[in-house]
Amino acid sequence: MKAKRWLSSFLALAVLVSPLTAHAEPSDQMSPSEHRELKEMTDRSGGTIQVKWDEKLGTPRFISGKLSKPLKGEPFEMALTFLDSIRDLYHVDKAKKSFALKRVDHDELGMQHVRLTHVVNGIPVWGDEIIVHIDKSRVVRSINGQFTANVEQNSERLKKPTLDAQAAIKAALADVKVEHPDAPPQALLHYFAHPEPDQINLVYIVNVYDKNTPADWKVFVDAMTGDILYKYNDIKTKKK
């Protein structure tokens, strides 16, 4: 699935669009509900918003402007209310089912930055995070992040692993050839879109720390088959 956006659709809505890539084809235009949600935000913002699309995922990477009316509730509640108003842009049913609160950051300007993790069946989607930026008047001023659409539909057969965490750890250790890791390996369930956004896998992401290499391995073990789908050494980004 490589959802692409038709540039003239945005111009018709008086939306200033900055695509992440230069490609725009009329064969994959926005749905009427997506048009409506963009138009509502554009109208609230006085005629112009800025949008950047993730060409591969087909969802917004960034939207800015006066995106909402003043909202009520705690930061997480405000973020969910806003996301429900644009749920068709992210292809979700209800924001409460699709987003879990990671944390809320505050800055010196009175902004609240609500970080949300994408979850399906209570399991996080690897790499997906949305940040909703709310000003001191409780108006959403921007939203950014990565979001993989349609994970719930594309993972219907993958609600429970057939492998347990210990079996995943054993497979990961064998793959990276670490007999004695320097910390107890952890295996956490995630949904993983690989190699394309509509090809969803249920995986254990196993962390293996090895001082000798040195390496901080992240090994993606298929939770249904035990196959190694992906791995990388995260040692360069590990905090000291």
From TrEMBL:
Keywords, sorted A to Z: Hydrolase, Metal-binding, Metalloprotease, Protease, Signal, Zinc
Gene3D superfamilies in UniProt: 3.10.450.40, 3.10.450.490
Span of domain FTP: 98-147
One Pfam family hit: FTP
Signal peptide: 1-24
Compositional bias (Basic and acidic residues): 33-43
InterPro entries, sorted: FTP_domain, Zinc_Metalloprotease_M4
Highest taxon listed in the record's lineage: Bacteria
Region (Disordered): 24-45
Metal-binding recorded as keyword: yes
PANTHER family (alphabetical): BACILLOLYSIN
Protein name, as recorded: PepSY domain-containing protein
Source lineage: Bacteria, Bacillati, Bacillota, Bacilli, Bacillales
